[in-house]
Design a protein that fits this description.
With about 625 residues, this protein is α+β, with helices and mostly antiparallel strands. About 50% of the residues lie in helices and about 20% in strands. It is built from 19 helices and 15 strands.
């Protein structure tokens, strides 16, 4: 398939995806955003009459998102072991242990993993579509040198695969050779985690998931300078990039662009051409390139509707990982139901009811007055003067409006709405840390209530881990094994650890830990304490366990109790081996010293022969 044919297919896919986004996806995203932010303009349209007298807003959905997000993040980042890497065979155990430590370091230290995952989870809860992008960044720089080498070093330089010899001169009187050569230096070689806004994703309308879609694209607004840098970094077509940059600056902002950043609506042309914006789409498409009837995955980059790069997708999967609190098996983006719909209904009712109560209270505190202007000076009344002139009895000239009492069932109605919220969202007053009125005051009863309330959070966390976090980390393992070609020094529990590329190769799998809630953690701590106190001593006597099992149980219990670096309070495996070797050496030295003190032992030792002779 020629480049022009690929461009035609991709542009057609992009048009369908953009039309679907503007008609179906974008309005839903903006509506859910309005509910989350409880925007005033949203409620002015929803309740125009009462909005003129009160602008109170209920933040029920915002509170739900912040409540649901906290235990998920605590489950993933609350202990020192976010992820478990396991080897598929005994020979892979060492590689799995090193890979786990490398991933832990990459997620929590090399990248802002906590904040990236926080936004990823928040987008999933708010929009039902959180997207994270994981890719490998590799940048190099070629520098040219001109030096004089002795004959041996010059010969080694000529044979080095890491050096490109440009020119070699004639040897001088001493045999030294002048050489001009180029050498490539690695500036950056690491995994990159990025949050992708749901408003920037496009996909085929008929797709059931991003992974199975024939077309998925990420929209970006980049400067002409960034686009030109991509010629060297990503392999863009330099000639086409120059043409695109020459006509840059005519970007049309979408509705969501203007809502998210109103300044884009009044974006004029930059005088500096390097700062002008270009609309770029990074497209992941499946097309039949060679006409064999089989779709091949390609990465096609469009700038100003022109293909500036088209390369095979060597990963054979997307670098995007999506999350949704209510995953729809028939759609990429759930449109039928969301937490914004569920919690938003209650939020709208509370907003309307509280506004009416506030208006009623305001009128009761400052009631309207019916005034006979023939008997009272209206100017004095309007100016709120201390002395008001009147020509008759003020009691008959001014009549305050009788206050209207709030309906007796109003507060009970608010309590009904609260019970709906607990039933629909699983966010009870117990698992929020607030005491609720209940007939069950026992610790066992309260624990049961909290456990039931945490079931929804547990389910959401496990779904997020299985649908997004686990596939993302499997992809990260593959990236490390494929692109990590130099030794990497990391710090684990304040100790340096050197990892070589060959150390992490093997058949590895991922398991994610998803402990949620104080009640679940306390149960696990109690079980581990019982194991250490009751089970371990007897198992040790029977030879079923050893020090390694004891340390693992202690570390796990301390981590769940909140001590993230509990492993540092125990010797490492290397330190245990050193101490064991030292003890063996000291024992041998002591035995030798004791034997020397006893005059020696064995055949041919004079002391023994003398003693034997004297005894005889």
């Amino acid at each position: 398939m020629k480049r022009e044919e690929i461009e035609s297919v991709v542009l057609q896919d992009l048009k369908r995806a953009n039309d679907f986004f503007e008609e179906t996806v974008e309005p839903k995203l903006l509506e859910r955003r309005d509910v989350y932010l409880a925007s005033r303009s949203f409620y002015e349209k929803k309740f125009p009459a009462i909005s003129k007298k009160s602008d109170f807003r209920s933040f029920g959905f915002y509170s739900y998102v912040q409540w649901a997000k906290a235990p998920i993040l605590d489950s993933l980042f609350g202990t020192s072991r976010v992820v478990h890497v396991v080897g598929c065979g005994p020979e892979d155990e060492q590689a799995a242990r090193l890979m786990e430590q490398l991933i832990q370091w990459e997620v929590s230290q090399q990248c802002a993993g906590y904040h990236v995952c926080e936004q990823w989870i928040e987008d999933a809860l708010v929009y039902e579509f959180g997207v994270l992008k994981l890719w490998w960044k590799r940048s190099t720089k070629v520098r040219e040198f001109e030096e004089v080498f002795p004959p041996e070093q010059a010969a080694a330089l000529f044979e080095s695969p890491e050096v490109e010899v440009v020119e070699a001169g004639e040897p001088d009187y001493w045999g030294d050779v002048p050489v001009r050569f180029r050498q490539e230096f690695l500036l950056d070689n690491r995994a990159v985690f990025e949050n992708i806004s749901p408003f920037d994703m496009r996909w085929s309308p008929e797709a059931k998931s991003l992974e199975t879609a024939n077309f998925v694209a990420q929209r970006q607004l980049v400067s002409a300078s960034e686009l030109k840098r991509g010629v060297e970094q990503f392999g863009y077509d330099g000639k086409l990039v120059a043409e695109v940059c020459e006509g840059a600056g005519s970007v049309t902002a979408t509705n969501s662009d203007i809502v998210l950043n109103p300044e884009l609506d009044d974006l004029g042309a930059e005088e500096d051409k390097a700062r002008r914006l270009v609309e770029l789409y990074e497209c992941y498409v499946n097309v039949d390139v060679n006409g064999d009837g089989i779709l091949e995955p390609l990465i096609v980059t469009l700038a100003d509707e022109r293909v500036i790069r088209a390369v095979p997708n060597s990963f054979e999967r997307l670098p995007f990982f999506s999350l949704s609190a209510h995953r729809d098996p028939a759609k990429v983006f759930p449109t039928d139901i969301s937490m914004a719909d569920i919690s938003g209904e209650l939020q709208h009712l509370v907003t309307a009811m509280v506004r009416q109560v506030l208006i009623n209270t305001s009128i009761s505190n400052k009631p309207r007055k019916f005034i006979n202007t023939q008997k009272v000076n209206l100017e004095d009344m309007m100016a709120d003067r201390t002395f008001v002139r009147c020509s008759d009895d003020p009691g008959g000239a001014v009549l305050p409006e009788a206050p209207t009492q709030i309906a007796g069932w109003t507060m009970n109605f608010f309590e009904l709405l609260k019970s709906f919220e607990e039933e629909w969202t699983g966010r009870t007053r117990y698992n929020q840390g607030m005491q609720a009125d209940t007939l069950n005051k026992t610790a066992t009863g309260i624990t049961a209530i909290m456990k039931a309330g945490n079931q929804r959070a547990n389910s959401t966390t496990k779904n997020f881990c299985e649908d997004g976090f686990k596939p993302m980390l499997k992809f990260l393992v593959m990236l490390n094994q494929r692109y990590m070609d130099q030794k990497q020094m990391i710090r684990v529990f304040s100790r340096p650890l050197l990892i070589a590329p060959d150390d992490i190769h093997g058949d590895l799998d991922i398991s994610v830990e998803t402990d949620v809630g104080l009640e679940k953690k306390q149960q696990t701590i109690n079980a581990l304490t019982e194991y250490l106190r009751e089970v371990y001593p007897f198992a040790q006597q029977m030879g079923l366990v050893g020090p390694r099992h004891f340390v693992a149980a202690c570390v796990k219990a301390l981590e769940l109790a909140g001590l993230s670096n509990a492993r540092q309070y125990f010797f490492t495996d290397e330190e245990v081996e050193e101490r064991r070797a030292m003890a063996v050496a000291m024992g041998q030295a002591g035995a030798a010293a004791a034997a020397a003190g006893n005059g020696g032992a064995g055949e041919g030792v004079p002391g023994l022969a003398y003693g034997a002779g004297g005894g005889a």
